[in-house]
């Protein structure tokens, strides 16, 4: 394997890891939002629009959590150079 192949493989693995972390975080945020009482804030909490809002909130929250986790991992990798 030459340098270009190693780099392509590394980038592919990083992309795969990012996708998996994002999907797991979205699933966890969906699970956590199931406990939230949307009926206190919405007129029709069982409507399709309310469910879509819950899906979009799960995606937004999960994406932010995944972004934090991946950035934290990258920061920890950068600390290796200090020691």
Question: Which helices and strands, and how do they pair?
Answer:
Blueprint: H1 3-33, H2 48-78
Helix pairs in contact: 1-2
Transmembrane segments: 12-33, 53-73
InterPro entries: DUF1146 (IPR009526)
Protein name: DUF1146 domain-containing protein
Task: Provide tags for this entry.
mainly alpha, elongated
Number of domains: 1
Given the C-alpha coordinates, what overall shape results?
A: elongated
What structural category arises from helix and sheet content? Answer: mainly alpha
Number of strands: 0
Helix content: over 70%
Radius of gyration, whole Å: 18 Å
Organism: Paenibacillus ginsengarvi
InterPro entries: DUF1146 (IPR009526)
Transmembrane segments: 12-33, 53-73
Protein name: DUF1146 domain-containing protein
Describe it.
With 83 residues, the protein is mainly alpha-helical. The protein has one domain. It contains two helices and no strands. It has helices spanning 3-33, 48-78. Helix 1 crosses helix 2. The longest helix has 31 residues, at 3-33. Pfam families: DUF1146 (PF06612). InterPro entries: DUF1146. Keywords: Membrane, Transmembrane, Transmembrane helix.
